[in-house]
Amino acid sequence: PVRLSNATRVRDVVPASTALKAAGLAALLIKGGALFARDESYMAKRMPRDYDVLVRRADAPRAIAVLRQAA
Hints:
By secondary structure, the chain is mainly α. It has three helices and two strands. The chain starts with a helix and ends with a helix.
């Protein structure tokens, strides 16, 4: 169940990442999400409630707007 839940959550990250990239914003998935992207076996070991995305401070307001619009 944990792996399936994490796979579903990762599926939700892809459109967010695509929207940020389409807007020309550099973004980096960090912490648990980065582990999942690097090694799928972590999906069975951890269950995050959210994903952390790092953007430049100056881009934060625009990134928030892009993510809200993509939701």
